[in-house]
Amino acid sequence: MKKILVLANSFGEDCTAYVQSLAPDLFVRNLYVPACSLEQHSRFIEEGAEVYQYQENAVMIGEKTISANEAFALEPWDHIVLQQASFLAGKYSSFYPYLTEIISYIKSVCPQAKLVFHQTWAYEKNSPHEMFSLYGRDASVMFRRIKSACARVAAENGLPLLRTGEFLQRLRRYKLFRDGSLCRDTYHLSTEYGRYAAALLFVRFFGEEYDKDFLPENAREEKIGKIREVLAQFEKDGCIL
To answer: 3-state DSSP: the chain helix, strand, coil percent, rounded to 5?
Structure first.
């Protein structure tokens, strides 16, 4: 059983909500602080701050928040997934020195863990998110900058890249998903399709087969079928390592 810890925020919550339903052999936990950036993660680790929800399937485990330091020691993690806050993911200057500090700490306490970098996604074109203005309120600009910054950072640190942003952007090309149904509020993923798509990619990225009988509540089979079809092509194109 692969044990995977995601050091993230609500976008990590979205990506991990359905992973274990799709692939029960994966043990996945998410460390959640809303909109948490790499700068904040680095500071919380340095302070040993007990501010994180420790989540399974997007639900908090226990009644108390914990520190990332404690979470790193809870399991012999096989993989630890890192990401930048969504609104900063296209701003290269926001990654350093914080990512370097986090990687150094994790390597000292979890030397067995392989690190992965997670590429988040652009907001929907009509998003009212206040930080969308960093990209001129242009979803295409946001996507291109996220893609570029995350690829550069992953290469600089020798980390495999989980390309969720690219996968969701590819889905948005299809008429079925031009209605904004991949997101529930123009930036967090919808429970019917967005979370399913992200989890499906997550499962295949880590080399597992997915349970084709699992369907999110209220999901239309036509859209689920298209997500699976596009994922197969995404994988064929070499976009999943």
So the answer is: 45, 15, 40
The per-residue pLDDT for range 107-125, each reduced to its tens digit, is 999 999 999 999 999 999 9
Here the tokens at position 100 are 């370097």
DSSP for 115-144?
EEEE---PPPTT---GGGGGGTT-HHHHHH
CA distance readout (Å), 127 to 40, 65, 114, 145, 239:
24, 30, 35, 17, 27
Given pLDDT bands bounded at 50, 70 and 90, which one contains residue 67? Answer: very high
Beta bridge pairs of residue 82: 7, 117
For residues 120 and 129, the answer to whether their CB atoms sit within 8 Å is no
N-term to C-term CA, the chain: 19
- Which tokens belong to 86? 């969504």
- Per-domain residue ranges for the chain? 2-236
Q: Average pLDDT of 128-145? A: 97
Q: For residue 17, which of 32, 36, 2 has the smallest C-alpha distance?
A: 32
Which of 3.40.50.1110, 3.30.750.24, 1.20.120.1630, 3.90.1150.30 is the CATH number of 2-236?
Answer: 3.40.50.1110
The pLDDT of residue 148: 98
At 28, phi and psi to the nearest 5? -125, 135
